[in-house]
C-alpha cells in the first residue's frame, strides 16, 4: 500500500483507529496531535504527486510574425534619449515625438511597449505616438487589448474593419483620424451604426465631429439634440453653436432679436444698447442647450442667466453683421449697458467656443477678471497676439507678477519667441535683486511650463545671465538651475533629431 493510500485510509476511518500515521517520504513532520500530522503529511505528499506528474499540454497556434518595417528607426543617440525621457523626463515626450515624426523615421522597437502604454494613459499623446509606431507597433496593438487604441495606425484602409470589430477607444481614435482625412466619409461611418451604439459610445464618438466641423454635419447634429443621453445632447448643441448658418443659430437669432436692440446715436446723442431679459426658458430653448435651472452664485438673477446662455450660444459674427459694428465697439456698448455682466460673459463664452480671435481680443482689452474664461479667451488668440498681451503685462513695474501673466503664459503652448522669453526672465532676475522669498511661489509652476516652450537655443545665454550674486539668488537658485537644465536637454534633443 502506498503512503498516499495509507493517509487516505487514516483520514476516512479516523486517527483514533489508525495506529500508525505514514511518513511523507523524506519529510518528517513533528505534529502535536495525529490529526495535524495527517493533514501535514497529505499536503507534503500532494505536492510530491503534483511535482512528479505530467504537465497538461494544449496545442497553440503560433502568432504570425510582425510585418517588415518600411521606415528606419531613429539613430542610436535619439533612441537612448527617448529611453531617458520615458524614465525621467516624461514632460519632454510630446516634443521628442513631434520632432521625431518630422524626420520620417519610427521609434525603436525596444521603446514601443512604453510608448503604447503612454498612449493608453494619455489621449493627448496618441496622435503624437501613432506616426512613430511602425509595423511592429501596429502588430503589438493587435495582440494586447490595452494597446488596441493604436489599431490601424499604419493602414488607412483598416478604418472600416476597426469600426466593426474594435473597442470604444480604438474606434473613437479611428473615427477622429478619418475625420482628418475625409470628414464626410467619417460622418457616414458614424451614421451607419449610430442607432445601435450604446449611450456611452455615442458620447465618446460625438467628440470626433469637432474635427473639420462643417455645415455638412448639421442634419446629424440636429437629430442628436433629441438623443436620450444628456452628454450627447450637450455636445451636439455646442457643435451646432459653432455653425453660423445652422438651424440652431437661426433659432437663437429669433430669440435674441427682440431682446437686444441698438439705438443708434446722432448729433450729441450716444448709441445705446437696449436690453430686455427673456421671460422664460421653454422646452425648445432647453433642447438647444440652455440650462433652465439657475444655481445662483453668478451675481445675476435667473432671467439674466438665461440671457447670458442665449448670447453664449449665438455665433459672435451674428452681432457684427447685424449692427455693422466692430467687435470692440459692441463690447464697449455692452459694458455701458445695465446688463453688462451677462452680455460680456455670454460674448466671452461664444468667442471661446468658436475660437474667434477678433472677439477674444476685444473682450480681453479691459477685462480684469482672471478666471478660466480669461484663459479660454487667451487660448483663442493667435500666437502673436497672445505674446503681445503677455509682453504688455510684463512691462508693468512691481515686485509681483501681474495677475494675468501666468494665465496668458500657461495658455501659450506654442514655441515662444526669444523676445517673450527674455522679457519674462528679466522680470525674474529683477526679483532676485529686490523681492523676498514670498514673491517666489508664482514662479514655480510658471518656470516649469516656460522651460518646455522657451527657445532651447537660448540655454547658454540664459545660464550666463543668472545673477548669482544677487541678494535673493539662493531663494530662486533651484528654480533657475532646473529651468536651465531642461532647456539644455531640449537643445540636445533638437540637435539629435535634426541631424
UniProtKB/TrEMBL annotation:
<protein>
    <submittedName>
        <fullName>Uncharacterized protein</fullName>
    </submittedName>
</protein>
<dbReference type="InterPro" id="IPR043746">
    <property type="entry name" value="DUF5691"/>
</dbReference>
<feature type="region of interest" description="Disordered">
    <location>
        <begin position="50"/>
        <end position="76"/>
    </location>
</feature>
<dbReference type="Pfam" id="PF18944">
    <property type="entry name" value="DUF5691"/>
</dbReference>
